[in-house]
Amino acid sequence: MQRMNKSPVISVEQLKVSFPVGTGWKKDAIVPVDGVSFSIEEGRVLSLVGESGSGKTTIGRTLMGIVRASGGKIRFYDQDVTRIRGRKLRDHRRRAQMVFQDPYGSLNPVRTVAQHLELPLRRNPQPRNAPISELIDELLTTVGLTPVEVMRVKYPHELSGGQRQRVAIARALAVRPKLLIADEPISMLDVSIRAEILQLLMGLRDTMHLSYLYITHDLASARFFGDRILVLYGGQVMEEADSETLVEDPRHPYTRLLLAASPGSGHVGLLPETSNQSPDLSRSRQGCPFANRCPLVMDICRVERPQRTKITEGHYTSCHAEA
Questions:
Q1: Using CA atoms, how far apart are residues 220 and 230, in angstroms rounded to an integer?
Q2: Alpha-carbon distance 203 to 195, whole Å?
């Protein structure tokens, strides 16, 4: 496959997101994203992996401006989009689009497939002067919803989960984005059609020169689709490497735990963890967020946050045991 230029489409530096909790004198905050950094080059796929509550979706929504960053910086090409509003935010959302996890809740039940695609096509300038109906048919053909004359008049309740997700993908493509944030796009679909959706996204990467942030809890699909994998836990980066390296040579205990819990891993018996307690997301937390579950925990892990350590070129982990 021919690669695009290696310039970053999006760069994230020390991203932090916090939400207020409590009332009165007991006001505090939780920090679901705490100092996350990464970049995605043109034509590349970064897989963001972690269990529920690790901060994956919050990161995706923050990149879209749905959630406001509390700290750090987000750059889209050369533009700082960390705290943009109004027209600048609308322009940013034409270049970056998001496909949500739930194909049943992301579509309006009283609009036809054609109506879902017509609105973004009319609101955004098109590269050629063609009838809207023709552009709609092209989008439907691109995502494999044929025959188009049948699909364009259907309502969401008349579609399968996979077809609904294809409509959501077509709607995102209508504005010709450069970056697609795919938030668990296959987790609510039948196993038999998950590979089809991933193959569709892979094909679009080449034909439409897309870059992806692929959010998932599934290391198998992260390896299949992603060029690189970034493992999150408790809103912090545990490990980052190219897909093959991370799966073949995991260095962080949490990455090993995810691999052991993956279908087909061959692991037998109890998982290598000391607790199933959820991570502490409070503003005042200390140490490594995985310390209370880690089989390699040391005293320093509970009081000092581990620094990013280089294992090999392009392979990094945040673990005191590897320092």
A1: 13
A2: 12
Q: Centre a 10 Å sphere on the Cβ of residue 28 and count the other Cβ atoms it contains.
A: 12
Residues 245 and 314: beta-carbon distance below 8 Å: yes
Question: Nearest-CA neighbor of 38 among 66, 2, 67, 9?
Answer: 9
State yes or no: pLDDT of 300 exceeds 70. Answer: yes
**Cβ(218)–Cβ(184) under 8 Å?**
no
Q: What is the pLDDT of residues 2-58, one digit of tens each?
A: 444 567 999 999 999 999 987 777 788 999 999 999 999 999 999 999 999 999 999
CA 17 to chain CA centroid, Å, is: 16
Instruction: Check: pTM over 0.90? Answer yes or no.
Output: yes
Omega before 127 within 30 of 0, i.e. cis:
no
Sequence-distant (6+) residues with CB within 8 A of 68 are 17, 62, 83
Do residues 140 and 113 touch, judged by C-beta distance below 8 A? yes
Query: Two tokens at 313?
Result: 């070129």
Phi and psi at 283, nearest 5°, equal -65, -30
CB 89 within 8 A of CB 68: no
Tokens at 73, concatenated? 């910086």
Listed residue (154, 180, 149, 176) closest to 167, CA to CA? 154
Preceding amide of 147 cis, omega within 30: yes
> Nearest to residue 167, comparing CAs of 193, 132, 141?
141
Q: For residue 111, give Cα distances in angstroms to 97, 141, 158, 169.
A: 20, 19, 12, 16
Q: Which domains does the chain have, with CATH numbers?
A: 8-322 (3.40.50.300)
The whole-number pLDDT of residue 130 equals 85
Contact 70, 30 (CB under 8 A): no
